[in-house]
Amino acid sequence: MIIKCRPFYLPREYTAILLVSVYIPPNNNNSNRNDALNELYQHISEQQTAHPDAFLIIAGDFNHADLKSVFPKIHQHINFPTRGNNILDFVYTTQRGAYKGKPQGCVLSPLLFTLLTHDCTPSHNSILFIKFADDTTVVGLISNRDETNYRTNYTQHVPLTINGVTVERVSSTKFLGVHITEDLSWTDNTAALAKKSQQRLYFLHKLRRARAPPPIMYTFYRGTIESILTSCITVWYGACNASCRKTLQRIVRAAEKIIGVSLPSLQDIYGTRLTRKALCIAGDPTHPSHSFFSLLPSGRRLRSLQARTSRLKDSFIHQAVRKLNSLPNLPPRPSSASGTTEL
């Protein structure tokens, strides 16, 4: 029996784990044991060809059959000193139990160490770096035991050059109308949207003074104010803090007082568009994020995604999966040919 699995905590060197459970009945005939080993070798070779980067574990009861006769590359790395270094349950693998670095006297050691310390540069003119083959010494003058000057310096990254042109480093950039900062916070984006929306409220006041009917003012609000507040809302609204959300919602409440009708909140708009976009991605097998929306064997819920940080937990994919799982029943997925949906 061969089981292919992929645990959540899996070293990145492997794509999956192949668990092979073997039982060879006791038999005094060597030809029967060899036939069983050859058949086992054939099935495992097919799986290794299909999954070349998988971690192979073979365990079972071989009844004196020599597995290494057909698998010379597998080894038993689990020995028990208390039992005379005997093997328990015959657990074989193709990988060693631990990784080891290169010894200090190895030929590759100076080269690997040089590559490791290549980007280590001094941040002050009075500091001298002395690089040996297997060590690095930092020499600097400290007067009167005062180290404050060295603690105020921050890491200066080496400039990135592409085709002879240095790439400019900025703390924030604007892409498709969304302000993206280096710390992935949405404060700057929220401030820009709030400022632009408040400027449009002035024209809404003008329409009210001109005694425009509420349907006209509502249409103006949808086209000039709400379109700004909800621009790419599925990208940034889920990761916004409470202060940013209140700032944007105040603009919606101000527009409600001017128009005199109830307006949908940003939270409701976000939930609607999040569901629509998630269903569109889940129904499109060609979408790069389609693999994140996988159904459980029951077919009623999506597989939950693990997140170690709150920033990842509040991202679009995780929010979309939780949103679909919160629905009483998963709605039918739209086909990929239905057209694009707005962000």
TrEMBL record:
Gene3D superfamilies named among the record's database cross-references: Endonuclease/exonuclease/phosphatase
Reverse transcriptase domain span: 1-191
Any Pfam family: ALKBH8_N
GO molecular function: 2-oxoglutarate-dependent dioxygenase activity; methyltransferase activity
Protein name, as recorded: Reverse transcriptase domain-containing protein
Organism per entry: Cyprinus carpio (Common carp)
